[in-house]
């Protein structure tokens, strides 16, 4: 499974979508990223239901808040029965579900994934527009910008080279949100060097030959799978040797939400540790 | 010397006796024919005696270890199976496997035995031919050669001449008879009463799971026995050429 | 003798070729030097921890599948018997998946291959019961289809119920097999069972030769059919189970290799055992080189390549079987 597929986020508010005179009053979100953006931005009582994934601590940073909402399983039938006046979906949400809801005359706002830190800001703004909560969104953006600025650090002359490595040997390059997080934290991305600017499957031996200073693996999913065995391959062990356990918590960057700041902080800390190691 | 002894021997299948109370001994130098109608228990008698079927009573062959038995008796099942396209010599060499060690490298003795068997069955010219490509009659001779190569004191064969042309039937029976005259023993089941009468030194008649007669062909093949056992009338006469038996008609 | 030398040379050449093939850009001489000399740096790491286990597994698993195919064919006296086609690999995969998902595989080192052996045992046993002592081609293939379908359904069910979202996508790995990203750990967990199973199957040589004449004749020549059958079942289950546990179900190796080599050993089923072992190793090495040359960066499944070679041959054999009226 493409890890990128999980980073469905952030809004491109389609120009073709209908507009509302008033703010929507019954909003149902069926995507883990719109779930979180909506929980941050919505007025109390405005959001009626979020998807089940919002309660999965592995990929959702807002499980506590999600527990306060009824969960839906992202299926058209179930969503329709909640009588929403707006449905929030990601662009990777099943096409059939979105089409079905539109045929039933339910407006659907489809959000594209975030590929950069600027996208995070845009998605917040767009979520504010969709929910009629522009002021709240502007406040979140200002807060995001301020924290982002505070995390800016004197970058080293030679940034430590690291690689992101997920199940099945998938990696993320500079043109992804994860890549941008590494970049902001002052880390050089081996995937970009190897020509995986947008991400892709990097064979283990290519990774080994690239000699990153450490390998950052995603959080493991619950239950075993062969796809994830690659993360415990002896070669990964050798590449990570002597380096603080490097993991990028999926819940902090899978979606383009302000929680990417936590990921940037984690990665900055990793970068400092790597630089101390090198000295 | 006794090559096979059966005592109170019986075979049951699905709790139903298919063979019971068989007492017999085969000595060396005998050419024994087992005759009887279809389903009488001829095959069961031979397979049971070999230990290939669960049985009651005693069988001197079944009591042996598999390896000893492989050197005591050669068995030719009715089905002439040659599963793979091996050459004739390789096939005949299989008969030597009970004599070979773990390495299974044929010694000179093994090669000699194979050569004798091939020669005996007039197969020397076919030795490097592929066995499965031979005619049915040739395949039957190859399989007999395989049993001969096993070089055992006793040879048991289930309908070895079925499906052969008259010349090959006679030749095969003569071959078996000559083995017997050399001191080995042969036990064959067959349906041709004429050939049984001419070539066997002893006949065992099996009917409905019992041995109903056992003796020389002249003693056994009476018109009464042929009528009672096979349900046919036959012309039976002792001639200067030996005993002649010719089935004539079905008794109503 | 000449065949043995040729096959060993072929395996050796392909083994070296497998070692110098890979997505990382390393010259053949440097890579072999790094493998032998070792030392620090990425190259010895790639050679010793990625390519060496992969090549070793190709030899072990290819040999296992070739050997198991030759043994099953010899016993059933049917050239269509292949552990993949008759559902043994599929059942082994089910055992392996079950072990992984229940945590048995993580509990102790041999848990995974032993569970796969259990699955394979069920598969071999079911085929022998369904196909009978001398399986006709028809019953053999039908039994294989039924067992494969059942094992495949259970495998898919377990993977679909698995909590990990990647697990469901692994159905294709378990059905088609792959050696990508394996490590020496996998060599060590597969090796004991493969060796034990191979030793068991090697003892069948005499019995399988004798079976050329049928069960009765073989038994009368001093072959204990009971023991032969048990050895065959456990030996096949061990080599196929251990192979499938680490590489998934790879089909057709046990069909193609014995078929190609049979004429060179005079069709003797006993001699075909060792020949098919070497031939299977060569075929899987070649297939694993092919998947890395065709799509270097993606995990093209080994079963795809073996099926592309094996399926047409399978069709040909079915046609010939019908023509011969078997």
UniProtKB/TrEMBL annotation, chain A:
<dbReference type="InterPro" id="IPR050902">
    <property type="entry name" value="ABC_Transporter_SBP"/>
</dbReference>
<feature type="signal peptide">
    <location>
        <begin position="1"/>
        <end position="21"/>
    </location>
</feature>
<feature type="domain" description="Fe/B12 periplasmic-binding">
    <location>
        <begin position="26"/>
        <end position="278"/>
    </location>
</feature>
<dbReference type="InterPro" id="IPR002491">
    <property type="entry name" value="ABC_transptr_periplasmic_BD"/>
</dbReference>
<dbReference type="Pfam" id="PF01497">
    <property type="entry name" value="Peripla_BP_2"/>
</dbReference>
<protein>
    <submittedName>
        <fullName>Iron complex transport system substrate-binding protein</fullName>
    </submittedName>
</protein>
<keyword id="KW-0732">Signal</keyword>
<dbReference type="GO" id="GO:0071281">
    <property type="term" value="P:cellular response to iron ion"/>
</dbReference>
From TrEMBL, chain B:
<dbReference type="GO" id="GO:0005524">
    <property type="term" value="F:ATP binding"/>
</dbReference>
<comment type="function">
    <text>Part of the ABC transporter complex HmuTUV involved in hemin import. Responsible for energy coupling to the transport system.</text>
</comment>
<dbReference type="InterPro" id="IPR003593">
    <property type="entry name" value="AAA+_ATPase"/>
</dbReference>
<protein>
    <submittedName>
        <fullName>Iron complex transport system ATP-binding protein</fullName>
    </submittedName>
</protein>
<dbReference type="GO" id="GO:0016887">
    <property type="term" value="F:ATP hydrolysis activity"/>
</dbReference>
<keyword id="KW-0067">ATP-binding</keyword>
<feature type="domain" description="ABC transporter">
    <location>
        <begin position="4"/>
        <end position="233"/>
    </location>
</feature>
<keyword id="KW-0813">Transport</keyword>
<dbReference type="Pfam" id="PF00005">
    <property type="entry name" value="ABC_tran"/>
</dbReference>
<dbReference type="InterPro" id="IPR027417">
    <property type="entry name" value="P-loop_NTPase"/>
</dbReference>
<keyword id="KW-0547">Nucleotide-binding</keyword>
<dbReference type="InterPro" id="IPR017871">
    <property type="entry name" value="ABC_transporter-like_CS"/>
</dbReference>
<keyword id="KW-1278">Translocase</keyword>
<dbReference type="InterPro" id="IPR003439">
    <property type="entry name" value="ABC_transporter-like_ATP-bd"/>
</dbReference>
TrEMBL record, chain C:
<dbReference type="GO" id="GO:0022857">
    <property type="term" value="F:transmembrane transporter activity"/>
</dbReference>
<dbReference type="GO" id="GO:0005886">
    <property type="term" value="C:plasma membrane"/>
</dbReference>
<keyword id="KW-1003">Cell membrane</keyword>
<dbReference type="GO" id="GO:0033214">
    <property type="term" value="P:siderophore-iron import into cell"/>
</dbReference>
<feature type="transmembrane region" description="Helical">
    <location>
        <begin position="230"/>
        <end position="253"/>
    </location>
</feature>
<dbReference type="InterPro" id="IPR037294">
    <property type="entry name" value="ABC_BtuC-like"/>
</dbReference>
<feature type="transmembrane region" description="Helical">
    <location>
        <begin position="273"/>
        <end position="295"/>
    </location>
</feature>
<feature type="transmembrane region" description="Helical">
    <location>
        <begin position="110"/>
        <end position="131"/>
    </location>
</feature>
<feature type="transmembrane region" description="Helical">
    <location>
        <begin position="52"/>
        <end position="72"/>
    </location>
</feature>
<feature type="transmembrane region" description="Helical">
    <location>
        <begin position="138"/>
        <end position="163"/>
    </location>
</feature>
<feature type="transmembrane region" description="Helical">
    <location>
        <begin position="84"/>
        <end position="104"/>
    </location>
</feature>
<keyword id="KW-0472">Membrane</keyword>
<protein>
    <submittedName>
        <fullName>Iron complex transport system permease protein</fullName>
    </submittedName>
</protein>
<keyword id="KW-0812">Transmembrane</keyword>
<comment type="similarity">
    <text>Belongs to the binding-protein-dependent transport system permease family. FecCD subfamily.</text>
</comment>
